[in-house]
Task: structure prediction
Amino acid sequence: MTTRPSPGRPWKVVMRGAANAAPRVIPDPPRRLLLASGGEPFSRDVIARAIELATPEHATITVLAIARVYGTSLGFPNPGLQPNRIEIEERKRITEDAATILRAEGFDVRVAMSKARNIPKMIARWANAKNFHAIVVPDPERPAWRRFLEGDVRREIERRCSVPVHAVPVPAPSHRTARAG
Result:
């Protein structure tokens, strides 16, 4: 709401008290946990960290896999830039494998999949929309130049939401050893 200025005075903006949202309280042992991946499979360390965080409150865990959409949002839609059937099946297999392990530990597990151009942004949107109390993501090893270009996963998610992010370092798969062996 704005008021008209009197002679010699600038415009004055009046804000109502209802516009300011109260800060969200996040419980220390989380009750809702998001286990998210941008395509890399969940390693034992990542699942172990999720179990460690979820155990005190016996948290509900949601396993989320995000398929990458390439290209820009400015051009015409191009079906070649969307994830194909094989990529989507691979993401479903990754989430189901992690969910099977977590269900065997006795947790209530939900499985979800999404598509996005910006993976950390989509994870943050899920965390805000579904009111998760903690996020666990794998953080694969990358060279410094690649980390600079792509951004740090943990920092990018924390920048967009107020939920604590637990990035578990994962060794990068070496393509050289696969060819040599």
